[in-house]
Amino acid sequence: MSTTDHPLKVLVQQFGRDFAEWLLETEVLSVEPVNVELAAETLKVDSLLRVFQANGDVILLHVEFQGRRSEPAMSLRQLRYLSQLIVRHGLETRLRSVVLYTERGAGRNDLGHYRVEDGHGQATLEWRYTPVLLWQISGEEILQTGRPALFPLVSLTRADDLPRILPEIVATLRRQTDNELRARLFNGLLALASDQEMLKMMENLLSHDEYEFETPYLRRWREKGLAEGHAEGHAEGQLSGLKQAILAITASRFDPPFSKALVLEKYIEPISDEASLQALIVDLSLASSFDAVLADLPTGIPRNGS
User: Fold this and answer.
1) Model pTM?
2) SS (H, E, C) the chain
3) Distances from the Cα of 298 to the Cαs of 88, 249, 264, 285, in angstroms?
4) Surface-to-core class of residue 275, CB atoms within 10 Å of its CB (0-12 exposed, 13-18 middle, 19+ buried)
5) In this predicted model, what pLDDT tens digit does every residue of 91-108 receive, in sequence order?
6) 162-174 and 179-192 helices, crossing angle to 10°
7) How far apart are CA 240 and CA 281, in angstroms?
8) Measured in Å, how far apart are the chain's first and last C-alpha atoms?
9) Range with the poorest average pLDDT among 50-54, 64-68, 197-201, 232-236
């Protein structure tokens, strides 16, 4: 799992209509989130939206976020996802599936179209989805959508044009008059940034008084993540990614006081079970308040290092 997966899920949850219009290339009236757990196979998709298009069509939009590693291969994972979605929602369902590849080199050989033949040249089974290699996309392409909700994705686009694109992205986000929206978009841009060079560019673009857009706890989390580096093994890296996602969602959604945020940070520090961390991410995404999240934690939460 890539450490950008969960910030992306939060972004799609918050701005589903913008993502739907971008990926479906059509006018959308509204979207609604759909349960992402496919109980028959205990599968969970990254994002599933029911999209109500302006032309009256209703389409199920399935979005996966993927880094370089996928086990099993994305083509086989998609076969499971698509078949289970149709089993659950019916053969008459209009379904579009998109994979957003977030890391350099990821999805390079993914054609998005696979078939199994019967020995006589006929297709026994055929399935399609749309691979989108964000790391190959120019930041200019994201900018030209005119959709500020998509602008945080420039953190994942081609690095060569970021010095030219970032100033205009930041300037556009600054002009957002809704303070909460502006903060969410800046937080998304920073949460998806994965290298120190881009973060340095962001720091240079934002004056001291504009750091209100990056919540204090998110900044602390980001600095801590950069200091720790990426020396962990694969298994430890998975856990680290989940823990970073928990802290990023905490910062984006609630920006809690440091004293409360540290309770959660100390609680997750010793956890080595991925399922427990993933369940906590779901709780954070759906909870009405940060206090409600803390209230649901098991007793014996480590506090002040005890």
Assistant:
1) 0.66
2) CCCCHHHHHHHHHHCHHHHHHHHHCCCEEEEEECCCEEHHHCEECCEEEEEEECCCCEEEEEEEEECCCCCCCHHHHHHHHHHHHHHHHCCCCCEEEEEEECCCCCCCCCCCEEEEECCCCCEEEEEECEEEEHHHCCHHHHHHCCCHHHHHHHHHCCHHHHHHHHHHHHHHHHCCCCHHHHHHHHHHHHHHCCCHHHHHHHHHHCCHHHHHHCCHHHHHHHHHHHHHCCCCCHHHHHHHHHHHHHHHHHHHHCCCCHHHHHHHHHHHCCCCCHHHHHHHHHHHHHCCCHHHHHHHCCCCCCCCCC
3) 34, 20, 11, 18
4) exposed
5) 888 999 999 998 888 889
6) 160
7) 13
8) 31
9) 232-236
Q: Which amino acid is at 274?
A: E
Residue 45, C-beta contacts closer than 8 angstroms, at least 6 positions apart: 36, 38, 62, 63, 64, 81, 85
How far is 224 from 265, CA to CA, in rounded Å? Answer: 12
Single-letter amino acid, residue 221:
W
In the chain, what is the greatest distance between 2 CA atoms, to the nearest angstrom?
69
Share above pLDDT 70 across residues of the chain, in percent, rounded to a whole number: 79
**Is the pLDDT at 122 greater than 60, yes or no?**
yes
Residues 6+ apart with CB under 8 A from 87: 40
Closest CA to 37 of 286, 306, 293: 286
